[in-house]
Amino acid sequence: MLRKLFVLTFLFGLLAGCAFQGDASVPTPFPTDYLPTVIYLTFQSIHSTTIAQTAAAVTPTLVPSLTPSPTVSPTVPTPTASAVPTPLPGMQPGTIQITSPGPNSRIVSPLEARLTVATEKDTKVYIALYGEDGSLLYDELLNIPNSSSGEYVFAKFPFEIRAAGETGILQVTTRDSNGVLMALDTMRVILLSNGVSQINPPGNTIYERVALETPAYKAAVSGGVLTVKGTYLPVNSQSLVLELVDVYGKSLNANTIVNIASLDSQVIDKTLPYKVDAPTQAYLVIHQADDILNNPVLFSRLYPIPWSGPAYVYTELITLNP
After folding, report:
1. Which residues contact 228 (CB under 8 A, 6 or more apart)?
2. Which CATH architecture does the domain made up of 209-322 adopt?
3. What's the pLDDT tens digit per position in 201-231?
């Protein structure tokens, strides 16, 4: 810095000396009275350059940091949360447990059904998939030769639909060796023509919808009147039907209905008058119709009186005495 100031002083003296040399003056590119200004500007330029160089020497160079971009996942539709009812006190695991798919699962063909069913010897398990117009998309009949408290069943159902998506109804039925319907359950899902399947868990739908205080399983009833008390968790707003049939599926002409006021649990408190001449084994059958399906379902092969699209069927074995 001092060296540069010395050089400037020397130049100033030299220029001043030249300015006073009489007639032999050499023309300059600047007016004579402008020279001090030039010298000042030259000094300012050197001073500014020195400051800039000093600052550059002591100031670290900022290297831009590379912030990794967040990984973007492919767009996946968020599964619709489905309302799964909490099992009521006294409700037992279902005779039919549809463990997959769960309620409102979004499914691209094929539908893979996983079930656990309670069976007797030579139980028939019928599985059917229906579209939202009630049309049958696929079905399968299985024979379970041995009795089991929880037989695992797997079935794969390919399907085709015209719309991008529609409601599908998976219906499962079990029948005993006489062809009498023992249980029926359904599961609502969403069928997709393309995309990615999103399977919801079954939640509490694996429990029976009926919890009876009376009659107990295999109870003996006398006096010509059967009292039915308990609770029921509705599938929909269709009326609930209670009736008595013998073990071959023949109606005993004893039935009543429970009007469904809401989808909350409903109290069952009904009496069914009956008439038998001798001890008679019978089924108390509790069933509710589907609000979409109208496919005929026979309760018994021997007495083919069709029901229109049941959504849920529960049976309990009892003995009717005169």
Report:
1. 212, 214, 215, 242, 268, 269, 270, 271, 272, 284
2. Sandwich (2.60)
3. 999 899 999 999 999 999 999 999 999 999 9
Per-residue pLDDT band for 12 (boundaries 50, 70, 90) equals: very low
Composition of the chain by helix, strand, coil, percent to 5: 15, 40, 40
Mean pLDDT of the chain: 80
Which one of 2.60.40.2550, 3.40.50.720, 2.60.40.10, 1.20.1250.20 gives the CATH number of domain 86-208? 2.60.40.2550
Q: Please answer whether residues 318 and 228 qualify as being in contact, where contact means their C-beta atoms are separated by less than 8 angstroms.
A: no
Look at residue 57 and tell me whether its pLDDT is greater than 90.
no
- 81: its two tokens: 């949360």
Query: Who wins on pLDDT, 234 or 15?
Result: 234
Do 205 and 187 touch, CB atoms closer than 8 A?
Answer: yes
DSSP strands (E only) in the chain: 96-100, 106-108, 111-119, 123-130, 136-144, 148-157, 165-175, 181-192, 210-214, 220-221, 225-232, 240-246, 251-258, 266-273, 280-289, 296-298, 306-308, 310-320
Q: Are 139 and 168 in contact (CB under 8 A)?
A: no
Confidence of residue 87 (pLDDT cuts 50, 70, 90): low
pLDDT tens profile 117-173: 999 999 999 999 999 999 999 999 999 999 999 999 999 999 999 999 999 999 999
* CA end-to-end span of the chain: 126
Q: What is the DSSP string of 125-173?
A: EEEEEE-TTS-EEEEEEEEE-S-EEEEEEEEEE----SSSEEEEEEEEE
Which candidate, 286, 245, 301, 306, places its Cα nearest to that of 95? 286
- Predicted TM-score (pTM) of the model is 0.73
Of 189, 183, 61, residue with least CA distance to 130? 189
